[in-house]
Design a protein that fits this description.
single chain; alpha+beta; Fructose-1,6-Bisphosphatase, Chain A, domain 1; D-Maltodextrin-Binding Protein, domain 2; 2 domains; 9-stranded mixed sheet; 5-stranded mixed sheet; 16 strands; disordered N terminus; binds 2,5-anhydro-1,6-di-O-phosphono-D-glucitol; binds manganese (II) ion
């Protein structure tokens, strides 16, 4: 006799869901969230559409050289430079186009903004407009595309303050606390979608045979303590004094004031680094340095820091600029950059202490 459907969600722990015990597709999860009154039909559609676009990007990424998708979008003098001042890869452009096309016609959005586009885009007049705003980093970790290392897509959803009308850049300038959903898709050995609609952070793995995302961890939890940090150490000499002091003490290990030995990992794809931290803990940082100080930092508040910070907080972790809770930063520009510290709560608090002590003595 077939086992009855399990209608009781498992407890909110970092419990991987073993194959066969129950199969909760992304669609089922979203319908249950809608029934519980936590999301509406438009937000459910929006997330389904983003997930579908991520499947398409996953197929392009997976084809690699066979799909002709590796390499730069332009060549030589014709190099294609985006609004961030960075050379675009073919997959940056393709992923942006896939997300734009998928989200244009569903009627759930008032507008979109992307790391790869100069300004936000309203929904074309040919289609109905909805009450949400979607922001994305279509392809995160571009430097890893050509060397076959994990890349990803990051997205954030806000309410349109003036729903149903043409979205303008200033409509997007809402703090991270206003996000109604956030997530990323990692294109690694397996393709995974990690999502929050404000009720925990959950991981779904793409079942490539069936073509659907299936929940594989309900309620991801980041351990409060960690012995692992992620930072691009080659920037050390450019860091501010408090970051020098903080990492200096991490490197001193059991001989230093922290009294324990730390390990280091740096994938250089934020999606992959954050996925590791959501899975086993750690601290991720991209601090202010003298090379990026004029821009405010390296990583983008609206497309990278805010969605990742919501996912991390929903998993019991913390996210900060080093001096302020990330989600409370009031954005002043669509492409604004910020210093980032996120992950295991006690370690993010330690990094903040170094900044506070330095600022107080200065
Ligand atoms: P993107 O590919 O969207 O421009 O983002 C790259 C980001 C982030 O994914 C990563 O953590 C960081 O840049 C890597 O920076 P370094 O090359 O300085 O290590
Ligand atoms: Mn990125
Ligand atoms: Mn990108």
């Amino acid at each position: 006799m077939a086992a009855p459907f399990n209608t009781v969600p498992p407890p909110m722990t970092n419990m991987p869901i073993t194959a066969g015990s129950q199969s909760i597709s992304l669609t089922r999860y979203l319908i249950e969230e809608q029934r519980a009154g936590r999301i509406n039909a438009d937000l459910r559609l929006l997330i389904e559409v983003v997930a579908r676009a991520c499947k398409t990007i996953s197929i392009a990424v997976g084809k690699g050289a066979l799909g002709g998708v590796l390499g730069d979008a332009g060549t030589g003098d014709e190099a294609s430079i985006n609004i961030q001042g960075e050379a675009q890869k073919k997959l940056d452009v393709l992923s942006n186009e896939i997300l734009l096309e998928a989200n244009a016609w569903g009627g759930h959005l008032a507008g979109l903004a992307s790391e790869e586009m100069d300004t936000s885009q309203p929904i074309p007049d040919a289609y109905p407009r909805g009450n949400y705003l979607l922001l994305f980093d279509p392809l995160d970790g571009s430097s890893n595309i050509d060397v076959n290392i994990s890349v990803g897509t990051i997205f954030s959803v806000l309410r349109a303050p003036d729903g149903g009308t043409h979205a303008q850049d200033e409509h997007f300038l809402q703090p991270g606390t206003a996000q109604v959903a956030a997530g990323y898709c990692t294109y690694g050995p397996s393709t995974m979608l990690v999502l929050t609609v404000g009720n925990g952070t959950h991981a779904f793995t793409l079942d490539r045979e069936i073509g659907s995302f299936v929940m594989t961890t309900r309620g991801m939890r980041i351990p409060a303590e960690t012995k692992e940090f992620a930072v691009n150490m080659s920037n050390q000499r450019f860091w501010e004094a408090p970051m020098q002091a903080y990492v200096g003490d991490l490197l001193a290990g059991s001989q230093g004031p922290r009294g324990k030995d730390f390990n280091m990992r740096w994938v250089a794809s934020m999606v992959a680094d954050v996925h590791r931290i959501l899975t086993r803990g750690g601290i991720f940082s991209y601090p202010l340095d003298s090379k990026c100080a004029a821009k405010g930092g390296k990583l983008r508040l609206m497309y990278e820091a805010n969605p990742m910070s919501l996912l991390v907080e929903q998993a019991g972790g913390a996210a900060s600029t080093g001096r302020q809770r990330m989600l409370e930063v009031q954005p002043t520009g669509l492409h604004q950059r910020v210093p980032v510290f996120l992950g295991s709560r006690s370690e993010v608090e330690a990094a903040e202490r170094y900044h506070a002590e330095h600022d107080a003595s200065a």
